[in-house]
Design the sequence.
C-alpha cells in the first residue's frame, strides 16, 4: 500500500492586490490571507490611498499592528494583478468607497474578468462600484440591506463564489470564515 502526501497548491506567479484604507482594516482579514497566499508563493501587494502605513484594528476598536503600503492607489492597475482582495473592518471599506479611483479599480477588475474577493464589510466599496446587480454574495449581516439595495442577492453562507457576470466575485461573512474564504480564492486562481 502506498501513501501519497497531499501537495500544497503552488501560487507562484500569481499576484494578489490587497486594497484597504490607511486605517481601520480588520487586521486578521488582512494578515491571514496575506500569509496563506504568500506561503503558497503568491506575490502580495498592499495598496492604500496614501503612502506610508496601514493601521490594523481588532474588532474595529482596538489598535492593531502597522503595515507598510507597497503601492499608492493612484498607481494601481488591474492589469498587474490576478486578484483584488478587499478586507473588512467597518471603517476602512466605508472610507475606501469615497475614493473614485478605488471604485474605478474595482470596476476594471470586474471588466477584465478577474477575481474580486471581499470579506465581512469589504463588500461596501462594491456598492459604490455598481457591480452587484444580479450577483449573489454574502457579507457581515449588518450591510445586507446595502448590498440588496445595490442589486445583489444576499445569502447567509460562509463562502459564495459567483460566476454570473463579468469577473469572479468571492465573498465571505467574517473572520470565522477565513479558512474557506482563502480556499475559495485559491480554487478560483488555479482553475482560471
Sequence:
Amino acid at each position: 500500500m502506498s501513501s501519497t502526501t497531499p501537495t500544497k497548491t503552488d501560487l507562484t506567479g500569481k499576484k494578489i492586490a490587497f486594497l484597504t484604507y490607511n486605517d481601520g482594516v480588520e487586521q486578521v482579514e488582512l494578515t491571514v490571507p496575506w500569509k496563506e497566499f504568500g506561503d503558497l508563493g503568491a506575490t502580495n501587494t498592499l495598496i492604500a490611498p496614501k503612502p506610508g502605513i496601514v493601521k490594523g484594528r481588532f474588532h474595529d476598536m482596538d489598535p492593531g499592528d502597522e503595515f507598510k503600503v507597497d503601492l499608492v492607489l493612484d498607481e494601481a492597475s488591474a492589469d498587474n494583478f490576478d486578484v483584488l482582495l478587499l478586507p473588512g473592518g467597518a471603517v476602512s471599506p466605508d472610507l475606501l468607497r469615497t475614493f473614485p479611483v478605488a471604485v474605478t479599480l474595482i470596476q476594471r477588475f470586474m471588466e477584465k474578468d478577474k477575481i474580486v474577493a471581499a470579506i465581512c464589510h469589504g463588500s461596501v466599496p462594491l456598492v459604490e462600484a455598481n457591480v452587484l446587480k444580479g450577483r449573489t454574495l454574502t457579507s457581515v449581516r449588518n450591510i445586507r440591506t446595502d448590498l440588496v439595495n445595490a442589486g445583489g442577492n444576499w445569502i447567509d453562507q460562509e463562502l459564495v463564489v459567483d460566476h454570473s457576470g463579468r469577473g469572479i466575485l468571492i465573498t465571505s461573512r467574517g473572520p470565522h470564515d477565513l479558512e474557506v474564504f482563502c480556499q475559495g480564492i485559491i480554487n478560483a486562481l488555479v482553475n482560471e
User: Anything to note?
Assistant: Helices lie at 27-39, 91-96, 100-111, 124-129, 144-149, 178-191. The chain has six helices and twelve strands. The longest helix spans residues 178-191. Residues 15-191 form a domain with the Rossmann fold fold (CATH 3.40.50.880).
